[in-house]
Design a protein that fits this description.
Blueprint: E1 7-16, H1 19-27, H2 29-35, E2 38-41, E3 49-54, E4 60-70, E5 74-81, H3 85-88, E6 93-102, E7 105-114, H4 120-142
Antiparallel strand pairs: 1-7, 2-3, 3-4, 4-5, 5-6, 6-7
Helix pairs in contact: 1-2
Length: 149
């Protein structure tokens, strides 16, 4: 982000998988549907547009642009909420995925940050990311997503 980060959420998890499998899970719609219930439409190349929609509903949740892409190590997304006016009004946030593999374990760090002090978007994602990433980890390690509900 060009200005000072005022709100930030960081989540770190370790997943028994490969960097490439985790990258694919993060960037391919057929996998996103399984553990997240959304699909992301993008080429995931620097400068590409990006949007996230409900897998079943097609509802547009978020949109933006790929700021940085270094497959399968790092992905940075300019992320703008599209479905809650009070969050959309905050403007863009930035989501960074960092993947580091060591001996069959991948350390995944997700950092979601905003230039808005006390960002309500960051409050919202701080409740969502742990659920999404726990489901991702479970699915990659066992082949089954967590039960919905």
């Amino acid at each position: 982000m060009t200005k000072e980060t005022k709100s930030k959420f960081v989540y770190v998890t370790f997943i028994r998988t490969t960097q490439q499998k985790l990258w694919d899970a993060l960037t391919k719609p057929e996998f996103q549907k399984i553990y997240w219930g959304v699909v992301q439409d993008s080429t995931f190349q620097k400068g590409a547009s990006w949007k996230m929609t409900g897998a079943d509903s097609g509802t547009l949740f978020d949109a933006g642009e790929i700021i940085e892409s270094d497959a399968p190590r790092k992905l940075v997304i300019k992320w703008i909420n599209q479905w809650k006016p009070e969050l959309t009004a905050e403007g863009p946030s930035r989501c960074t995925y960092e993947l580091a593999e060591d001996k069959g374990i991948v350390k995944l760090t997700v950092t979601h940050e905003s230039e808005v002090e006390n960002s309500q978007l960051i409050v919202a994602v701080s409740g969502g990311w742990p659920k999404i990433l726990s489901n991702l980890k479970t699915w990659l390690e066992t082949g089954e997503a967590l039960p919905k509900g």
